[in-house]
């Protein structure tokens, strides 16, 4: 992870929450994540908490590596701006355009294999809105990636989500007032 990129993002978005986490992965997932990251010369990842016009949240159910419910988004390619990557990923996977996009969290993630091998990863978490009340049908990219996209009211978010996404989502729902802080 480039310290230069991290510092540039924190200067551009001084109100973003800064977090760090160690993320143990099964060996096969670690190797697949490492290969994906380094073969693409990725800058990191960009995911988001996206609200529709009815106050529901868009989530993606992934198959394959890191299977389960997640915040939608994906890889930030070499030379790509994190915000541009987030918008691109959402257009490709969900088929919608985003309004009011803001970086709300910047996470320094350390992926850890069972053998103790590690690599660092920068994850940008955005907040955004879409004008639609309903989602369009699945995009070609969503079908190719085995994604299921769905809407959830804050009180109905899945109890199990991948890679700490539920904790990120619950934190932001509580501070926004969309979820009872005592939960």
Q: What does this protein structure show overall?
A:
By secondary structure, the protein is of the alpha/beta class. The protein is built from five helices and eight strands, in the order H-E-H-E-E-E-E-H-E-E-H-E-H. The chain has helices at 3-12, 27-39, 82-94, 140-145, 165-176, and strands spanning 17-24, 44-51, 57-62, 68-70, 73-76, 99-112, 118-129, 148-152. The longest helix has 13 residues, at 27-39. The chain starts with a helix and ends in a 7-residue tail after the last helix. The mean pLDDT is 94.
Identify the notable features of this structure and list them briefly.
single chain; 183 residues; three-stranded antiparallel sheet
Give the CA-CA distance, first to last residue: 34 Å
- Sum up the overall morphology in one term: globular
How are helices and strands ordered from N to C? HEHEEEEHEEHEH
The secondary structure category is alpha/beta
Cα-atom radius of gyration: 16 Å
Q: Main beta sheet: strand number and arrangement?
A: 5 strands, mixed
Helix percentage range: 25-40%
How do the strands of the widest beta sheet line up side by side?
A: 1-6-7-2-5
**Counted beta strands:** 8
Mean pLDDT: 94
Sheet-strand content, in percent, reads: 25-35%
Stretches where pLDDT is under 50 for at least 5 consecutive residues are: none
Number of helices: 5
